Structure formats: C-alpha cells, structure tokens
Structure of FAD-binding protein:
Amino acid sequence: MSPENTRTWQNWAGNQQATPQRVVTPRTAGEVAAAVRSAAAEGRTVRMTGTGHSFTGAAVAEGVLLRPTALTAVRSVDTATGLVTVEAGLPMHALNRVLDEHGLALANMGDIQEQTVAGALQTATHGTGRDSAGLASQVAALDLVLADGTAVTCSPQERPDLFDAARAGLGALGIVTAVTWRTVPAFVLRAQEEPMKWDEVLSRVDEFDAANEHFEFYWFPHTEGCLTKRNNRVEGPAEPLSGFRYWMDDQFLSNSVFGLINKVTHLAPAATPFVNRISAKALGARTYSDTSYKVFTSPRTVRFKEQEYAIPRGELVPALRELRSLFAKRDWRISFPIEVRLLPQEDAWLSMAHGRQSAFIAVHVYHRDPHEDYFRGVEDLLTTLGGRPHWGKLHTRDAFYLEKVYPRFGDFRALRDELDPERRFANPYTRQVFGD
C-alpha cells in the first residue's frame, strides 16, 4: 500500500472535484482494512473511487481517497455454477472479456462498460430489460471492509440484510473489495434499431415492452423523431456490423459528429431545434447481432451531464407527454436525446426499481452547457410521481424526500447507524441523501 503525491481528483464529466488529504492505492483487502483503521485513528473519512462516471458527488473523498487500480484480480471462475468473483477495481469491460473467454455473460447491462465493477454496482447501474434486472440483481455475494476495519462477506445466506442493503450501498456501509457475480451462459443478441415517430412509439410502448427482452428508445427534443432499440437473444452465429459501418455509425456519427453538433449548439443555442431535426432524420434503421456485451454497450466520448429518475411503469406515457409539454412552456434548447428504459422490480433496498416495475427517464446536457433549469423542471415533474433519482446522476433530493419513496430507506439508515456510527464513510453526498 503506497501513498500517492497526486491528490486532485475529478470525475469524467468534470463537474465534481476533490482534493483529499491523502490518496492511497491498496493492493489487497487487508490493505483496505489497514487504510480504514488508519483513517479512523486520525479522525478522517475514507472513500474508494471508481473511474469517476458518476455525475453526483458519490465518489468525492474529503479525507482519505482509496484508488482501486491495484484491486483488479479475477479470484475465481466457476463455469458449472456461473459464479465469478472479481476484485472491486476491475473495469466492467475487463470483466466482460473474462466472462466471454469462459463462455459466460451478465444477463443485463447498462450502456457503457468503463466503470469499475464496484462503482457500477454501488450506484445501482441497470440497463433495460423485460425479465432481466440491473446489476444489483446479478450479485451472489459481496466482500466488504466495515468501518471498524473488519472484513466480512455477505450473501442471501450470510448477513442477508447487509447483502440487500449493500448491493446498492453508495459505499456508505462499507468499502466493497470483491463482488461475486451470478452469470449466465454466453449468448448472442440481435439488435434491431429503427427510427419512429413520437406518437407511434408512445402508442406501442406496451407492445414493444412485452414483445422484446430489452427495449428502449430515445426522443430528440424539439422534433417528432425517436430511435427505438429492440435487443433479443438469437442462436447465432453472430452477424456484427462491418468494421466500416461500426466506425461510421458508432464512432464518427454518434461521437465525432455529435460532439461537433454540441459545440455548435453550445455557442448558438437557438440553432438546437433545427440541428435536432437534421439529426433525427439522419438516423437509419440497422439490424445486427453480436456477443451480448457488445450490443448492450456503446462508446461514449462526448462528455455530458445527466439526470435520471425511475418512476412507476404505469406512469411512463403520461409522464412523457407532460415532459414534452414542458418544452413548449420553457425556454429549453436541448441537443441531447432523452433516453427511456424499462426494468422489472428488484429487491436490493436502494435499487431505483425496488419493489416495483419501473420506467427510467434520463435527460442529458453537453458538459459545458448549464443544466440547472432543465434538470430542475424535469425533476419537479418526476418527483410528483414518486420518482427515485439515480444515485450516480444529478439530482437535488434529500433524506426527507427519499424516505417517502423507498420502503426500506429507514432500515438502511438504521443499519448504517449500527455499522458506521462515526460516519467513517461519509462525504457531502451521503450527508445530503441520508441526512447526516
């Protein structure tokens, strides 16, 4: 375990910074425990970062910052049971490659794979799915270091309350050192992407949800244009995009050109509706199949800020219609499409889909654009529907609100009082969402 001189930390979007008192890179769970005990002796708080893909201050460290870059080992792979144990700092893209090499896969994923496994899990990263839920529902066990420096393992059989709380624990109950994933046999996904008009998508959203394993869509503000995405398992063999088509669609158009568009609309916001209409019309239908994680995830090089809320599934269409009406009432000029995803209910206490079938509405702005008025307007709408904010994406909710929308929120806080009474793992964000 070695202290580092470089202390300045910044997240991917550039909207969160920290200068902790000390930075340490532990190489083992034992060194994590030693760092926690050392921080306690000095009266400091301690947090472990991931790769900084949260837009909230979830990873901000005021006292001791633990970097996970040396905690990346694959501890075990059991192809018979599908149980795979990896250390907390292993990036999702590395996990995906390891699983694929052993004929395994995660049943569902979010749309990027740059996060560490612990960072993605602790903020309840999800994806979209009719039957397959988010990452928190694909975990078999967690290894944690608690505030007193002890190392524990929790699972449905061993400390089940801690397991249900810590799977989406924001690092507030302990520092995750390893995750045991419950994987499935590797599979091929067929992706069908098709432009569609707003009215058709909203009239058929229930049909698309029922008929597809994974359905999502994007709406381009100020237009009638949407892009629908339907992913379903097929026997294979895979029929991926050609190298040129992948480069043209996913690298050049979706990143290079889209980045240029956002630079233009940043300088000339009034041009946004016109530019969005061109973008929506430029989208073409495409169908391809590939290894599951290559279909679930896409490269994202244009930096942005994001807010996402989960609402009851039955409220989706009325919420979207009301959200669209806000564009007619407010002076918003938004270049980023609005993303809609669906998820079955989960049992992790702080999963955004806890106890209810959920729809997720995500709004974005270019990282250099102001977000406050837009995000606040969307948040005001979705919180009237009992919306739950994504823990890693910008929001203004506090404990007073959150305890009303999470049935097990009080149980989580009580467990935190028991395990971390001195708030060794606290930071400004945990103080906001938990109240102390």
Remarks:
- The mean pLDDT is 94.
- The longest strand covers residues 188-197.
- The first helix runs from residue 29 to 41.
